[in-house]
# Entry
Amino acid sequence: MGQRDLVLLTDHSSTEGSRDAMATAVRTLNGRAPVLLDARHFMTADADLTAGTGRIEADGAGSVRLVADGRVVTTETVVVYEIPPHRRPAFAHCQRLLRAHGVRSLGTDVQAWRAATEKDLTVACFTRDGIPHMPTITLSRPSPEAAAEAFEQLGGDVWARPCVGMGGDDVFHVTTHAQLAAAARYYADLGVNWLIARDARNFTADGRRHQYRVVVLGGRVVRVTEHVQPDPDAPCNECRGAVSILLDVDELPPGLGELAVAATKSVGLPLAGVDLAAESGGVVFEVNVHPAFGRTRGVEQVAVPYIAAHLRP
# Structure
């Protein structure tokens, strides 16, 4: 392999599709395909995964040797992407090795990934740094009385979600005590901590939910989409029925771009997809470690500049 070859390290069990977009960007910029390696080879054991046998070793200044699945690859640049939230703790050791060996690999800080992945930690970062967000309370197997008290404290109109999740899974709009009790039982059965946040009242004039996904790279907004959800009780995600509309960056309401940049800095990520709304004074819902690209201009707007940032001397 030459010095400009690049390794693309992703979880090959993921079906999200960002891996293909990243590979296209590498071919566009580098003139040849990346070396594709399955990140699971470098993960420690978790609930549904045995420990991988891959190794990462230093091999000269700024280069590493990755050994996995009978292959040995030496490179100075490793792009990490499409690691599902539930797998990120098992990948932390690999992140630490990449940083320790000085390889070019953006966004591999373990604490930053945790701060964005674990939504209770995200809220703590936002509170510390003054990032506007909806009032939120974290719950861990609460008593019915404690859950009801938190629900009333937030006005009796909240969104419940697990502290770690993806794509609007296991997220509920809760407006009654019966719904709250059902959510509490659901999360208890899953064995997960959860949180409730006051509803942002982010409605269009005709009553549809809407919010923005703003992708930030290196302190600059590179992509903006608006998500419109006809069901006011469903999460504003495409996989939950929302329609995604690609916007020009200057179509974002004033102040939201700066808010998105501030949110990424709060959790410590160089690249992130920030979900936020203009209502309630402008609030951030969450920061996504590995934003999906969508079907329109995702390679051009996100993947190419992200790969380019790895290739700069």
